[in-house]
Amino acid sequence: MDRLEELRKMLAGDPGDPFLRYAMAMEYVKAGDSGQAIAEFQRLIADHPAYVAAYFMCGRALRDRGDKSAAHQIWLQGIAKAREINDPHAASEMSEELSLLE
Description:
Elements: H1 3-13, H2 18-31, H3 34-47, H4 52-64, H5 68-84, H6 88-101
Helix pairs in contact: 1-2, 2-3, 3-4, 4-5, 4-6, 5-6
């Protein structure tokens, strides 16, 4: 059984688990499937908006796919959320990505 299949089975048993959703998105990144990765990150952000790592990685996937505008927007949202939950490290990382984007 491959890693994606394992994660799908685990998510079927616990669809609300944010770590499993993040792991699934990261597996899609590793597999080169940016569309699925972005969809998983976006679902994670919708269901668990304080999971700021999802904004960071979603932005990277969007940027790598060539969608700089969407990457810019998701990082701005992520920075705002990171500040809201008092995570200055995450806010700083996304700010750095934004500065490199321009």
